[in-house]
Amino acid sequence: GQTNLKSPQDIQVYAVNTNFTLRWNYTGNDTTVTFSAEYRWFEDFETNEAEWKELPGCQNVTRMECDFSSAITEYYDTHHVRIRAERREEVSPWSSIFEMVPYYIAQIGPPGIELQSTNGVIKIKVSPPEANQVRKMWITHLSFKYNLVIWKNSSDAEFRSQSIFPTDTIDYFAPDTTYCLKVQATLPLELQEGLFSPVRCIKTTHKVNDLLCATNVSVLALNMEFHLHWNNQYEHHVSYNVQYLMGYLKKLPDDYSVKWLNVPGCENITDTQCNFSSIITTISGFYYLRVQAMNEYNKSCLSNEVKVDPLITNEIGPPGVKVDISNVLLHIQISPPGGSESEVMRDHYDLSYRILYWKNSLNNEQEIKMKEIKQTIGTVSDLTPSTLYCVKVQAFSKVYNKSSQFSKEECIKTPGDKILPLIILATFVTALVVVLLVAALLGLALYQAYNKIKYVFFPSCQPPLNIKGFEGQPFSSLYESTREEPTEKCSIIEISITEEVNQIDFKDYKHSKQSSRDSGNYSYDDDTSGIKVSEETLEKEIV
């Protein structure tokens, strides 16, 4: 049971696409030794035991490598491989087990390429690495990206690398010059890079300058309004058709030359510009545009193509601005570029706004202040009363590293200071109250003085008639008996008057006299001559 054969060492598997090669090393010198391999695979990670089987293509081989591509059909399952040396009836121990998952160790093979040199350009067509194979390792061949390395076939060659589509045109070559190139397929999402294609060389031709072709084709886009412009160098009548191609079609290996479409509204036009905003139906993809020129003889010429990636090609326009003042705040209302209905500008660019504001005075050294906001409404505080403030706003997107021009300046004057008018009003009211109080007191004093004067000099009650007769005489003299003027005393004595009557008349007289004294007036007798006499005189006459 003993043997002198050694086991193979350094077991490796090399995989390109679906082609698998097993390689190993052997230190023995016996040339009659052959090698045979076995394999097993696990459909389930929980299965630890599987039956070993002979590895097709790797039985009794004399070289230290074998191709077992036909044995691998499950590219995502775990496989084990082992090998041993054999010499007639004698065998070596099995080598160590090599474990692999085919998909993870496989390399992307070289793509196929086709070249054509025409009119000063090189047209290249690339086919996927497994284009001619029935079994495919890379089922997502549409995800392939292709890198081109090209250089001038000379001793001081400078290598240039760029990404290309499966069908592409390269137009920056010098005429009558040989260029060499190679292409590599990659899967960026899986971080896998393939093998380069064999080097191919081709000689360029001269480019024919056709005056009918539109030149300097360019795109001007502002706020998602897209315009294509070009120059006309043809002296005779010419009309244009603007054509576009969806960008994803260039990623396909199929021929897309028949899939160009005319832009609506830009067919058979004579202008050298066209609004193609109507075809921008999605912002996640990209587009290609070209201009087809036709003369009166139906000869046509196609311009160079221009690529349009909507969010990158588009430029942001200045926003709209309105300003207002309330109390001590400056209110700034911003209208997004493209108007309030432009959802693309507002949502996809994630716009922010840069506000510049300053005092507009004769002093040009006034500091310009800046404020950045995300909302479309901003406020500025700490304003100076009775001052003209000016504002301008710029929209910008950090995501796309784009910014607009500043809007037009909008100016507004802040209201005056309200403290001074309040002070003036309070002073006026206080002064008015004081004046009214002084006037009221003065009026009251004058009224009291007037009443005193009127009371003293113009009393409201009149003296009795008997006092009025003594005008100019002192009041004390009113109670003194008046001097008797020398008058002729006459009396009429009626004899028929009896003493009893006289007594009655005297009593009546006395009673009348007493009443007159009480009232301060003297009574007059109708039968007398009207001359005033004193009480004593009358008594004497009666006696």
Care to describe what's here?
- The structure is a single chain.
- The chain has 543 residues and is α+β, with helices and mostly antiparallel strands.
- The chain is elongated, with a radius of gyration of 65 Å.
- It has helices at 102-105, 310-313, 343-348, 419-457, 465-468, 499-519, 535-542, and strands at residues 9-16, 19-25, 34-42, 53-54, 65-67, 78-87, 90-91, 98-100, 106-107, 112-118, 121-127, 145-152, 160-164, 167-170, 178-187, 192-196, 200-203, 215-222, 225-231, 238-246, 261-262, 273-275, 287-295, 300-302, 306-308, 320-326, 329-335, 352-359, 369-373, 377-380, 388-397, 402-403, 410-413.
> Helical amount among residues, as a percent range?
10-25%
CATH topology of the largest domain: Immunoglobulin-like
> What is the tally of helical segments?
7
Q: How much strand content do the residues show?
A: 25-35%
Mean of the pLDDT scores? Answer: 81
Strands, count: 33
Q: Please give the radius of gyration in angstroms.
A: 65 Å
